[in-house]
Amino acid sequence: MKSKISEAICRDMEQWFESFHQAPETAMQEYDTSRIIAERLRDFGYEVTEGIGKLGIVATMQRGEGTRSLGIRAEFDALAIQEENDLPYRSRIPGHAHLCGHDGHTTMLLGAAKQLVESGHFNGKLTLIFQPGEETMQGGAAMVADGLFERFPVDAVYAMHNLPSLPLGTLHFCSGEMMSAVDNWEIKLMGRGSHGSMPELSIDPVVAGASLVLALQSIVSRNVSPWHHSVVTIGAFLAGDTGNTIPDSATLRLSIRNMEPKTRVQVLERIRTITQHQAESYGCAYEITEGQPGAVLINSEEETRYAAEVARKTFGEKQVVYPSARYMSSEDFAFMLQKQRGCYLMIGNGETPMVHNPKFIFNKQLLPIGASYWVALAEDYLR
């Protein structure tokens, strides 16, 4: 495949990527990142609208008499995780890092945006969507609620994510349900603290929490059919600071994933019921804080088949997998696909640590590949 990205823009992309990586901002706090993206797009010549869903950006460009409109989306938030990579461009912000590759996704779309201005051939309207807050499932829903597609109508919308373990640079497409709905919940158990030597004077939320962790694991194994897909993960158990003190409270943080809407309702109701009875059996009070409701990511068949065909024409048959696997991970691009037809695809990051790992590294070799795909898609869709 001959790259559709000039050597000059490839050098620009490497610089942009390293700059984003060094200055990560977490979900819905990406003020500097959003400003930099908007300024860059204006410099390219796009009409830019900021502040959609708080920090979202839309850049548009009309060429010719064409009436078709293509939407392409990239996200730009980082994670609250300490990076453990020894890179010359490692994160400069303690406890924050781009360990999911959103800096790379944004860079690829910016590179494509610049290339399409300088030498792209399209007839119609190009709509580029840059989204905050993907990691907390807030940004996509916020942009949609702020009238994203009413204000900037598109005929189809596309997005891309890197995935370690997939061969480097391969493109993977899946029609229908591709990614699960995620619900991020917090359960707080309130008991009564005491000295560790006098447990009889306490209502121990640690013991109650430990029991609750085990009880919640029975949902997938005993309440959900093996034919359905569901995951209940307790990723954090927060309680106390010292070994000789029983704390007043304990907090569990959950990541709940389901591929079918009916199963999701069942699983969430079981979590509520089990939490209530477990807390009562140990004499604890409890509070459940439910985050942004999840959504299953569903790729429309026609748009997915078309996107895969563009990839084949651009990169060759061996670089394209269609149909590909489905994933129990989640993406708030699902909220955009609820409103508009389109496709979310994966690009292989090679044999690197998984996303959200402190040692994850976005492979910079993907920058011209991903940008070339976006250029090819725009030129083919807006012929």
Automatic annotation (TrEMBL):
InterPro entries: Amidohydrolase, Bact_exopeptidase_dim_dom, Peptidase_M20, Peptidase_M20_dimer. Keywords: Hydrolase, Manganese, Metal-binding. The Mn(2+) ion enhances activity. Its cofactor is Mn(2+). Residues 185-281 form the Peptidase M20 dimerisation domain. This is Amidohydrolase. The keyword Hydrolase applies. It comes from Porphyromonas uenonis 60-3. GO terms for biological process: diaminopimelate biosynthetic process. NCBIfam families: amidohydrolases. It holds the Pfam family Peptidase_M20. One of its GO terms (molecular function) is metal ion binding. Mn(2+) binds at C100, H102, E135, H161, H356.
